[in-house]
Amino acid sequence: MSTSSTEPSATGATPDPKKTPKRDPSLPPGEFELGTLGLKAADAWDASPLPGLLWCSKAQFRAAVLAFRASMSTAAATDDDLSPAAQRLRELDEQAETSLKFVKNYLTEQHGSRKKGEAYYETFGLVKEGRDWGLPSGRPARAEALAKLVGALAASDYAASKYGTAFWKPIAKEYAPLAATSSDVRGETAKASGTKNADEDTLRPMLRALRQHIKTNFPETYKAEWRGFGYLKESY
After folding, report:
1. Where is composition skewed (Polar residues) in this entry (predicted)?
2. Cβ distance 117 to 110 under 8 Å?
C-alpha cells in the first residue's frame, strides 16, 4: 500500500506539503525544450505500434503538446508587447516628475507662499501621497491627473509659460493610451502565463508516463526507443 505524502518518512521527518516538488531530471527544465520534446514524441508515438495509455490517448497527448506550445508562444508575445509601452511610460513618468516642480513654483509665486499655493494643488491634479504632493503613483489615476493638470493650466495665468499647457498637453495625450495599454497587456501577460503554466502541468505527467510506457513495452531496446521519441538530452 502506498504511503501518504503527509506521513512521516523513514527518517521520522514529515514532508512539507507546501514544498515545491523537484522536477523529473529525465525531462528538460526549459519550456522551449519541453515543447520540442513533446512534438517529437507525439510524432514518434503516432508512427509507433505502441498503444495509447488508458488515461491518455495519442490524440490527447498531441492536443496537450499543441496547447502548451501555443500558450508558450502567446505568453512570450504578450510579454514582448509590454516592454515598449512600459519603457515609454517610465520615460514620461521621469519627465513629469522632473517638470512638476515648475508648476508648483508658479503656484507659489502667484499666491505668495508654498503653503497658500498648496491649497490649489488638487485643482491641478496633484495628490498627497505620504508627505509629498505629486501626481498619483497609479498609472490610470496619473493619466486622469495629467488631463486635469492640462485643463487647469489652460485656465491659469501661466498657460503660456515654458511649463504651461503646450508643455503638458502632449505628455497627457501620449500617456493616457499607453497607461491603458500597459494595464491591459499586463493583465493579458499574467493570464497567458497562468495558462502556459497550467498547460505545462498537464503535459509533464504525460511525458513521464509515456517514457515509462516505452520502457515497459521495450525492455531490451528502450534506450533506442527513447532516442527515437526524443527523450535523450541531445534530442532537445
Report:
1. 1-12
2. yes
Q: Which cell numbers hold the place of 14? A: 514529515
Q: What is the CA radius of gyration of the chain?
A: 30
| Euclidean distance between CA atoms 78 and 187, whole angstroms | 10
| Tally of CA atoms within 13 A in the half-sphere of 221 that contains its CB | 5
- Residues whose CB falls within 8 Å of the CB of residue 69, separated by 6 or more in sequence, listed in order: 35, 38, 39
Taking only the tens place, the pLDDT of each residue in 36-82 is: 899 999 999 999 999 999 999 999 999 999 999 888 876 666 554 55
Exposed/middle/buried for residue 80 (C-beta within 10 Å: 0-12, 13-18, 19+): exposed
* Per-residue cell: 97: 516628475
DSSP letter string over 34-49?
Answer: HHHHHHHHHHHHHHSS
Beta bridge partners of 128: 133
69, 28 contact by CB (below 8 A): no
Would the pLDDT of 144 be above 80?
yes
